[in-house]
Amino acid sequence: MQILYCNIGNPHSLGQQPVTFFREVLSLCDHPALLDKSETHALYSSDAIERAWQILEKIPGRATGAYSHSQGVKGLRDEIAAGIAARDGFHASGDNIFLTDGASPAVHMMMQLLIRSEKDGILCPLPQYPLYSASIALHGGSFVPYFLDEETGWGLEVDELKKQVDEARSKGITVRALVVINPGNPTGQVLAEENQKKIVEFCKNEGLVLLADEVYQENIYVEDKQFHSFKKIARSMGYTDDDLPLVSFQSVSKGYYGECGKRGGYMEVTGFNADVREQIYKVASVNLCSNISGQILSSLIMNPPKVGDESYESFMVERDGIISSLARRAKALEEAFNSLEGITCNKAEGAMYLFPRLHLPQKAIGAAQAAGAAPDAYYALRLLQATGIVVVPGSGFGQAPGTYHFRCTILPQEDKIPAIISRFKEFHEKFMDEFRDVSRDEAPTGATIESGGD
Amino acid sequence: MQILYCNIGNPHSLGQQPVTFFREVLSLCDHPALLDKSETHALYSSDAIERAWQILEKIPGRATGAYSHSQGVKGLRDEIAAGIAARDGFHASGDNIFLTDGASPAVHMMMQLLIRSEKDGILCPLPQYPLYSASIALHGGSFVPYFLDEETGWGLEVDELKKQVDEARSKGITVRALVVINPGNPTGQVLAEENQKKIVEFCKNEGLVLLADEVYQENIYVEDKQFHSFKKIARSMGYTDDDLPLVSFQSVSKGYYGECGKRGGYMEVTGFNADVREQIYKVASVNLCSNISGQILSSLIMNPPKVGDESYESFMVERDGIISSLARRAKALEEAFNSLEGITCNKAEGAMYLFPRLHLPQKAIGAAQAAGAAPDAYYALRLLQATGIVVVPGSGFGQAPGTYHFRCTILPQEDKIPAIISRFKEFHEKFMDEFRDVSRDEAPTGATIESGGD
Q1: Most buried among A138, A164, A416, B167, using CB within 10 Å?
Q2: Distance CA B337, CA A452 (A)
Q3: pLDDT tens-digit readout, A302-341
């Protein structure tokens, strides 16, 4: 049986092709001797050659094989800052950029700095991408969950944040930071601007560091939503660098590029005093620097080809082709899930995932308990056995007590989606036939986090 | 004034050129579309093209942009294992290889796993590359130093290990592992086979994990010494995977390749039970995987061009040119240091460093104390101010009480060495004239570790 991987946010593993311009530049920077050869023009676009030259000029000694500054090559950080400024309409500085081997190490760095003991808590969404719970556990802190509201499309309500902060504080936890994943993983929602303003206000009032996981900023699939960085929101409210400590995480692994294997990314760090900044730098320097190819690619995604560049049109065809196909896949899967008995599914407004809710029959829950598995894990295992489709049980991300979900990526290539849908439907209908209750009733269980996937 | 960097093991930053074959393969793997084009043969050697094909075939879906298995691409690990087996004459398995973003993250992973509290100690050499002290501090363990014997060429004596282990144990420390850096950083010595056997025996008897930092395995500059991996030594003594937990660290940043910016490397993990192995895997998976270019380069350094390959001769010219030049630079600098009043310097048998001892006049020590600096830091600062030469004070690596050193890399390009030597001599003679005691006397001070460099 063919295994159909819908479990991991790893687009290239499912056949997504790399963006040509980005790979041309990386290829040239890996072998700069090519830049002096006339034959190179037969193989590479002229703007890729030009960009490779520009990048090499930014790297001291043009040495792509040297350790860089521990924050990353200064010229590349400046280019990224210019890209952020162009995106947001507010100033950004290369001095605030820390280039990292993907977003995960950046998150670990911040957790390492924020967590002093188990008395320090970090507010994280439930459901959440389990990088956060893992990192908090690794660094010995307390995971302070807040629930996203499934009924309102995985809404993030400030009342809920306040309730959870107060409750944590009453237990002696010092809540130090709020993690917001926008667009959401595993939940796929895109926050509205007004909502973001309230979140910024909340962090300001409560004295929290805002850790903004914005790695899906270029994965937006609906007309009525746009990505707004939290920094843009904060600046538009008049808050300056002095008002709010804010970290924005970005990665080359997501977006339309999906370059997971390159391990590139950065965090933009604003609103910390010089002492804290120095500590961040110290932690960054422990592993010397992030890989230079990842640094270069980070600069490329924040400064892709522009109108008039030789590659612009073909680049836009590739880019829009990927994004629009992802949007169609998201819609097709969402509609399929919603067409089924016992499944409800919020729209994937962004990111790479759907997180459908399973309204499981009591009999299925009983079968899962008899098998010693969480009900959604039991469902996912049965799905895998019957169809080869791999999804991640909702219990891997945490979910409201008594609810069951699974995360399904929208990443299988578009021509595979109809077969996935029909196999899924066939399985689900049989599953429901096997377990359907005469009168449906859901048994509540505790929210748990077991293990998810990226 | 021109700054002459002799402080960091970062060869490409000082003009060392990348090895052409390695970069050709990386360039092709970054842009696999090139492999189908006939023009590619005009720009790349045929064996690089062939190797790129072979590597892509090892990567599922040929997707160099996908996350790999958290240990690294299996086919690349197998290739590395074959390289280890060819080097050592003993079996190696790809299942035991963990590919990492350079050796530093691998060291951190092991420290994270070994250290449970400040009651767990790790035996480390003094002088030591301060990655170890930093990592132990970060993970909350106890640094248990053992002194290398400068008189015997930075000899590593098992009696000293035993003494330090016993002393640590008497303080309630559980000593869990022994770090050996071979060839030595910052000390440049290459361990003799008999010495290594005693170290293996010691670890076996004391129940210690042997953490073998072998990143300089291809940097050997003397005829009478060879690199022997600790795994080869242990296997040659008849110890199997069941007898001794052993981790060997390797990196693409050192050797003749010196590809620091690629952040590639691996650890070979043998002699742990399945439970521990699973924990290592879990920690490795927290950051998903190491970067694929670094993984590919790790496979290339362990399987470079062979006799008969198109690139073999030019590869060997590049390789031997770098190694023999490094050997000449090491010798020239060592002789220069030893020719000076108040400096003694052991041979750099390997690695990338000299670690000369400064027999400082009492008056210089007094001047340093008046300036609030460690005496060798004071010397290094004066050297920098007078000549632009940057070295790292010995206090950054730890040293025997009452001794002063500095670490000087052998990495400036060969044509720069005479100027460095003459500037250095001129400075040193003036420094001695300024501070020379009528009768020389050294004041003892405590061994300290401040901060070193890679």
Answers
A1: A164
A2: 58
A3: 999 999 999 999 999 999 999 999 999 999 999 999 999 9
